[in-house]
């Protein structure tokens, strides 16, 4: 594996502060990199949404019975 995308869990509907979650995620990625210098992982992408997302299960349920 050479790349990974990690969602910033809790930053959507749960309202966790994006700035804090992002800083923690970056620090953990940096720590992983230092602890694993021979890793094949070269690209880490953090996915942070700027607004709440819809509940997909509710969306499909409503669409099914429309």
Tell me what the structure shows:
The chain has about 70 residues and is of the alpha+beta class. It has one domain. A two-stranded parallel sheet has the order 1-2. Strand 1, helix 1 and strand 2 form a beta-alpha-beta unit. The longest helix has 18 residues.
How would you summarize this macromolecular structure in one to three sentences?
This protein is α+β, with helices and mostly antiparallel strands. It contains two helices and two strands.
User: Could you say how many structural domains there are in total?
Assistant: 1
- Count every beta strand, where a strand is a DSSP E run of 2 or more residues: 2
Helix/strand-derived class? alpha+beta
Q: Which radius of gyration do the C-alpha atoms yield?
A: 16 Å
Helix percent band:
40-55%
The low-confidence parts are none
Please, what is the average pLDDT?
Answer: 81
| Shape by Cα distribution | flat
Enumerate the strands of the largest sheet in spatial order, edge to edge or round the barrel: 1-2
Quote the distance from N terminus to C terminus.
42 Å
Strand content: 15-25%
SSE order in H/E notation?
EHEH
Largest sheet composition: 2 strands, parallel
**Number of helices, counting only DSSP H or I runs of 4 residues or more:** 2
């Amino acid at each position: 594996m050479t790349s990974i995308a990690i969602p910033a869990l809790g930053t959507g509907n749960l309202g966790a502060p994006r700035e804090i979650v992002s800083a923690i995620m970056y620090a953990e990625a940096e720590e992983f990199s230092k602890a694993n210098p021979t890793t094949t992982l070269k690209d880490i992408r953090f996915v942070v949404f700027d607004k709440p997302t819809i509940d997909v299960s509710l969306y499909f349920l409503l669409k099914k019975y429309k």
